[in-house]
Amino acid sequence: MTAAKVEIYTWTTCPFCIRAKNLLMNKGVDFIEYNIDGDEVARNKMAERSNGKRSLPQIFINDDHIGGCDDIYGLDRKGKLDALLADNKV
């Protein structure tokens, strides 16, 4: 079983970004962080991947757009996040 590929777009001082990263770290998940402070090119790429969403953070698991901080915490509350993070794909 391999771990899911987790990517998160953040700003350094964004409290929601910090909360989302803390959730992933508490679960022992390795993730790729794209810190896009003031980088409009990177933000535009993020918006393209997230169906136009420009708020931060934006989180992707196995290239699927999960959403932001509230979304990832919602998945965790419903017991659905761990299954996404397990990535049972062959």
Structure in words:
With 90 residues, the chain is of the alpha+beta class. 41% of the residues lie in helices and 19% in strands. It is built from four helices and four strands, in the order βαβαββαα. It has a four-stranded mixed beta sheet, sandwiched between helices. β1 (6-10), α1 (15-26) and β2 form a beta-alpha-beta unit. It is globular and about 35 Å long. The N and C termini lie close together (8 Å). The model has no long low-confidence stretch (mean pLDDT 94).
Q: Brief overview, please?
A:
Belongs to the glutaredoxin family. The chain is built from 4 helices and 4 strands.
Structure keywords:
90 residues, alpha+beta, 4-stranded mixed sheet, 4 strands, 41% helix
Tell me the layout of helices and strands.
Blueprint: E1 6-10, H1 15-26, E2 32-35, H2 40-49, E3 58-61, E4 64-67, H3 69-77, H4 81-86
Parallel strand pairs: 1-2
Antiparallel strand pairs: 1-3, 3-4
Helix pairs in contact: 1-3
* Order of adjacent strands in the largest pleated sheet: 2-1-3-4
| Helix/strand/pairing category | alpha+beta
Q: Give the fraction of residues assigned to helices.
A: 40-55%
- If helices are DSSP runs of H or I spanning 4 or more residues, what is the number of helices? 4
The amount of beta strand, in percent, is 15-25%
Low-confidence stretches: none
Mean pLDDT comes to 94
> What is the succession of H and E elements?
EHEHEEHH
Please summarize the sheet with the most strands. Answer: 4 strands, mixed
Radius of gyration: 13 Å
Q: What's the N-to-C terminus distance? A: 8 Å
Number of strands: 4
